[in-house]
């Protein structure tokens, strides 16, 4: 239950991931050994050694070097997945909050309606349907992969052709007479020495196989009346793809022609693309160094360059976890007992106080970019703020708002403390015996609280 709630909350907090978002790239200027984030929607553009980049649409971020020479230098990237601090805060808070859901429900009076039962959709697809559709689905997936590769080749080729003139103008004047600058990928005879474009025969073979597999599936569909949803959907997808066959083939040949035109090195080096998700960041190390090639050994080269850092998704609503000392002046509740009123009866009386005026709790605050100024000291408004007591001896929940300065936060709101109340009885009521006294637990009666919290420091953030 906790993980489902966490996923729902987190999904609501993160800005939607757009598949058509502009590409985000960490661009390293090899001339000055500086880096910036270009394109996309990011929070901080300048990349510092060991710094963190926040991306608002975590659809991946590329790393490339510019004003370099791909004939002389290699760019390598090592990266690992890291957790998102905001998600860690939510998981920790919800792990503590989880038992409260059943506890609060148990203390409520029986005035809730009956829970509705959810029905299951009837099964409409047989195993035979799945087996019959699988060959066509596999070929469609393969065709989709080919189209993705075609698009990637087109984009890379266009980028390299565009950078060709910049490469020559950037290096030829400064390195006149230095020897090999932009080695050709092809020899005198392009047909014999150019890299081969292998997508065309594979894609044509896939289209031929798709024709055959689609005909077999149509025969299967004719024998089943009516065909199941999976069969209909697969046939529709196959017909759509085959109706676009001429356009796909034309696109393949155009891409192949463009690829064959890309016969020189580039001043841009595409290092790697880091996959960023709303619930997972990446730490990375970029290294640009001269290629270890004997034929290039006599050429002047630059010293190796290394850049370390992290990339995290920027949540639109950002949670932060901490610990708070709470003072709720009104959180005093009577204890109940009995006193002997006569030989055959006792009377209900107040017998002491349940004092919860001072307490500590975990506090989860929520803020947005509009409420804070990144990389500058200042005030941050946290709205709303939730508190929960993590101990088993005392149960309390609260909601409020706070103002934070760096790692300190002052807050106010209402706290609801679990305490004992009389169950259908009243003070002064006469009972046959002390054993007839009945109480129950409740969270009713919220009390105003003030708190001071420490947030954003270990162990409440990932080191």
Describe the protein in words.
By secondary structure, the chain is an alpha+beta fold. It has two domains: 2-85 and 131-313, no CATH class; 317-455, no CATH class. It has helices at residues 2-13, 85-107, 127-171, 190-193, 199-223, 229-243, 245-261; strands spanning 25-29, 34-38, 46-47, 51-55, 61-66, 73-82, 269-274, 281-290, 305-313, 317-327, 332-342, 345-355, 358-368, 379-388, 396-405, 408-417, 419-422, 430-431, 439-442, 447-455. The strands form five sheets. A six-stranded antiparallel β-barrel has the order 10-13-14-15-16-20. The chain has a five-stranded mixed beta sheet with strand order 3-2-1-5-7, with no helix packed on it. A four-stranded mixed beta sheet has the order 4-9-8-6, with no helix packed on it. A hairpin with a 7-residue loop joins β14 (379-388) and β15. It starts with a helix and ends in an 8-residue tail after the last strand.
Structural class: alpha+beta
Unreliable residue runs: 1-22, 108-123, 164-169, 171-188
Counted by DSSP, the helix tally is 7
Beta strand %: 25-35%
Secondary-structure blueprint:
Elements: H1 2-13, E1 25-29, E2 34-38, E3 46-47, E4 51-55, E5 61-66, E6 73-82, H2 85-107, H3 127-171, H4 190-193, H5 199-223, H6 229-243, H7 245-261, E7 269-274, E8 281-290, E9 305-313, E10 317-327, E11 332-342, E12 345-355, E13 358-368, E14 379-388, E15 396-405, E16 408-417, E17 419-422, E18 430-431, E19 439-442, E20 447-455
Parallel strand pairs: 1-5, 4-9
Antiparallel strand pairs: 1-2, 2-3, 5-7, 6-8, 8-9, 10-13, 10-20, 11-12, 12-18, 13-14, 14-15, 15-16, 16-20, 17-19
């Amino acid at each position: 239950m906790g993980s489902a709630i966490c996923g729902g909350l987190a999904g609501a907090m993160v800005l939607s991931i757009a598949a058509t978002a502009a590409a985000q790239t960490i661009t390293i200027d090899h001339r000055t050994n500086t880096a910036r984030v270009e394109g996309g929607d990011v929070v901080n553009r300048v990349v510092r050694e060991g710094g963190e980049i926040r991306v608002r649409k975590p659809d991946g971020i590329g790393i490339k070097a510019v004003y370099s020479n791909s004939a002389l230098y290699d760019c390598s990237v090592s990266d690992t997945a890291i957790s998102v601090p905001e998600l860690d805060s939510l998981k920790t808070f919800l792990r503590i909050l989880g038992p409260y859901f059943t506890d609060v429900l148990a203390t409520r009076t029986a005035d809730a309606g009956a829970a509705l039962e959810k029905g299951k959709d009837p099964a409409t697809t047989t195993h035979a349907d799945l087996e019959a559709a699988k060959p066509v689905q596999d070929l469609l997936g393969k065709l989709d992969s080919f189209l993705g590769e075609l698009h990637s080749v087109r984009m890379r080729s266009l980028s390299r052709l565009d950078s060709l003139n910049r490469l020559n103008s950037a290096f030829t004047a400064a390195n006149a007479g230095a020897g090999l600058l932009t080695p050709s990928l092809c020899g005198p005879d392009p047909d014999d020495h150019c890299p081969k474009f292998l997508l065309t025969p594979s894609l044509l073979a896939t289209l031929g196989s798709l024709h055959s597999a689609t005909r077999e599936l149509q025969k299967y569909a004719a024998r089943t009346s009516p065909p199941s949803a999976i069969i209909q959907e697969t046939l529709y997808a196959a017909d759509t793809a085959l109706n676009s066959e001429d356009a796909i083939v034309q696109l393949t040949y155009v891409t192949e022609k463009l690829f064959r035109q890309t016969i020189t090195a580039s001043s841009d080096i595409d290092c790697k693309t880091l996959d960023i998700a709303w619930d997972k960041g990446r730490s990375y190390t970029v290294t640009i160094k001269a290629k270890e090639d004997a034929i290039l050994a006599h050429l002047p080269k630059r010293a190796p360059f290394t850049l370390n850092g992290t990339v995290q998704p920027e949540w639109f609503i950002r949670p932060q976890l901490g610990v708070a000392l709470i003072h709720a002046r009104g959180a005093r509740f009577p204890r109940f007992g009995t006193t002997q009123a006569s030989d055959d009866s006792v009377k209900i009386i107040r017998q002491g106080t349940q004092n919860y005026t001072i307490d500590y709790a975990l506090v989860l605050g929520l803020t947005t970019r509009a409420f804070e100024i990144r990389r500058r000291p200042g005030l941050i408004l946290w709205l709303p703020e939730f508190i929960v007591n993590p101990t088993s001896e005392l149960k309390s929940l609260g909601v409020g708002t706070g103002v934070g300065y760096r790692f300190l936060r002052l807050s106010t709101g209402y706290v609801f403390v679990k305490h004992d109340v009389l169950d259908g009885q009243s003070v002064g009521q006469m009972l046959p015996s002390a054993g007839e006294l009945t109480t129950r637990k409740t969270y009713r009666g919220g009390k105003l609280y003030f708190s001071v919290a420490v947030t954003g420091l270990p162990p409440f953030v990932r080191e």
